[in-house]
Amino acid sequence: MPIPQIVIDTNVIIAGLRSRNGASFQLLRLVGTKSFNIHLSVPLVLEYEEVILRQLPKLSIDVSDVQNFIDFQCSVATHHQIFFLWRPYLRDSKDDMVLELAVKAECDSVVTYNTRDFAGIE
C-alpha cells in the first residue's frame, strides 16, 4: 500500500505543541516514521516558525526547541518550490499556500482543523 502524502496545516502544528493529549500531538510523533510523508514549501516553513514563535508564551517550549522542531520537519519532509499561485482561491487567502503545496506535491490529504476554509477542494 502506498505511503500517504500529506501537508500539515499550521493550526495542527500549534495544537500538537500545546497539548500531548490530542490527535495533533500523536500525528507530530509519527512524522519521520514512514507512516506518511510530509511536504513543505519555504512559505509554509516560515509560517510555522512565525506562528510558533508568536504562540511561544502559551507553549511549554523555548526558542531553541522551536528551531529544533523546524529543523526536524525540514529534514524529513519532501521540499517543493511553488511556481504558480492560485490566489485568492480559498476563503482565507493565507491558506492558499497550503492548497498550492498540496496540489504541487499531489498530496492525498491536507491535515487541518480549518476544514471550513478548505471546503470544496476535494
Automatic annotation (TrEMBL):
PANTHER family: SSL7007 PROTEIN (PTHR34610:SF3)
PIN domain ranges (all copies): 6-116
The name this protein goes by in its record: Toxin-antitoxin system toxin component, PIN family
Highest taxon of the lineage: Bacteria
Organism: Leptolyngbya cf. ectocarpi LEGE 11479
InterPro entries the record matches: PIN-like_dom_sf, PIN_dom, PIN_toxin-like
